[in-house]
Amino acid sequence: MNVVNDQAEANTPSLRRAGQIDLREIAIHLPGKTRFEAVRNISAHIDAGEFVSIIGPSGCGKSTLLNAIAGYLAPSGGSLRVDGEAVTGPGPDRGMVFQHNSLFPWKTALHNVAFGLKMNGVGYRERLARAEEFLRLVGLTGFSDRYPAQLSGGMQQRVEIARALINNPRVVLMDEPFGALDAQTRERMQQLLLDIWGRFKPTVLFVTHDIDEALILSDRVLVMTCRPGQAREEIDIDLPRPRPENIVVSPEFIALKKRCLALVRDEARKSLIDGLEADRIQIPVEA
Amino acid sequence: MNRSGISRFFTSFPWFLLSLPALLLVWRLAADRVDNPVLLPSPNLVAESALELFGDGSLVADIKASLQRVFTGFFIASTLAVPLALLMAYFLPLRQLFLPLVTILRPIPPIAWIPLAILWFGLGDKPSYFITALAAFFPIFLNAFAGGIDVQPRHVHAARFLGAGRWLMVRHIYLMSALPHVWTGLRIGLGQSWMAVVTAELIAAQSGLGYMIQANRINLETQHVLTGMIVIGMLGALMTTALGWCERFVLPWKFQRQ
Ligand SMILES: Nc1ncnc2c1ncn2[C@@H]1O[C@H](COP(=O)(O)OP(=O)(O)OP(=O)(O)O)[C@@H](O)[C@H]1O
Ligand SMILES: [Mg+2]
Description:
The structure holds 2 protein chains of 2 kinds.
Chain A: H1 3-10, E1 21-30, E2 36-46, E3 51-55, H2 62-70, E4 77-82, E5 85-86, E6 94-97, H3 109-119, H4 124-137, H5 153-165, E7 171-175, H6 183-200, E8 203-207, H7 211-217, E9 220-224, E10 231-236, H8 251-278
Parallel strand pairs in A: 3-8, 3-9, 6-7, 7-8
Antiparallel strand pairs in A: 1-2, 1-4, 4-5, 9-10
Helix pairs in contact in A: 3-4, 3-5, 4-5
Chain B: H1 3-12, H2 16-34, H3 43-55, H4 58-90, H5 92-105, H6 114-121, H7 125-148, H8 153-161, H9 166-204, H10 209-218, H11 222-250
Helix pairs in contact in B: 3-11, 4-5, 4-7, 4-9, 4-10, 6-7, 7-9, 9-10, 9-11, 10-11
């Protein structure tokens, strides 16, 4: 019953593993006929336990960047380190929550969550007890024996989060994890994520389309340019935590939002013009 | 009775209870009309024949012989086809090496192999094993192959993030992704094998239901032929039903939809 507490104790400062991410002049080319330049020269440092969101126009390379940090896409240039170690492939020190359901349909919710522990040699009884605890944490007590097909989209996403977190990863990578959810579920999931983050303090790298979401959740927001993706700006979100619901109407929040919106709009407009120019279509530019 | 009452009666009445009696009735009427037990023996005659063949133990012996051939051939086919198909799905060179062969061999019906089977294995059980295995092989192989290439990259990625090494990945992701297709292949394969055993025994055996049918045809004992046919049909249906029932244990996640 104290499973989660035990986990938290394992994270006391003395034992705390880090979770720093160091990107130095990362360039990523995607394979294909013409080596497509998806990400150009991105440098960033993310501290252990920091919550950082990445926003930018569609197609700018956010997922690509995240996949590189995840380790299943090798950058074509620059260096990519987690806690000083070069990333060579996916591994249990990083957890990933995908946008699209990647639960194993042949396993129950409980066994999906317990899978990571099994892979790391935790005994049967212990891993099921811990998985049960994590399901409770994401509000799914009583759903352990359901298969993913029997769960709603929001529930599946919660199982997915529990599964990614059970190995207590130093870094959690999330690619628009709540993109497919309705507004209410989405808000609940954001609070849930903040709860869990507060409890285990992993480093979180969170890709989203939703500027409000980025501002509510993050310590810092990275804005990317249109493709090839570069770092346009880093914005510190020094809003106090915990952030109340009505923070979205506070002047500070609105100011930050305006700034982000302006940047993203600017980049989106550029990418649109780029696209049109590429198609050799002339558009009259209005003032 | 109002309209909706009538329509409810029509949709909720257990019609399947009538299908067998209806068949028997039509058969009986037709047999009376034909009035020639060699062309069409009546149901009563066939029932007597079934009791007779059961009584002297020959029917049970034939059933045993046929079942043994089917299960042996089916076992050989599955132990060869499933691993081979999965290896071909996972290793491109193997796929390129074997896929053309499979494409050419597959359209040849098992019955066309019977002459070769007799030449190679003589009469008796062995050519039947060959034919039943052959009949089961292709459905099992093709479905298992489809299952092998059906593994979803997102599941592989997720498993790697959760620390799965090579062997655990194969067991928990690759094999589980393939399982529904493999199961379909086994089901179809068993059915094909059962149909093929009769064919094989018609020509290349001295026992079994196919042989029994053939022998009685020559003796103009048509009621025995029909008994054999009915037993074949019922056993086949029984196998299908049994496998359908097993499915909930093999693929539990396909059964819990709500
Ligand atoms: N397999 C691929 N081969 C070639 N180009 C690709 C491939 N996948 C994506 N791209 C291109 O790489 C660019 C970056 O894609 P990426 O998925 O990282 O964008 P994104 O920022 O995540 O977009 P979105 O916000 O729409 O998810 C896109 O312009 C896309 O066209
Ligand atoms: Mg994306």
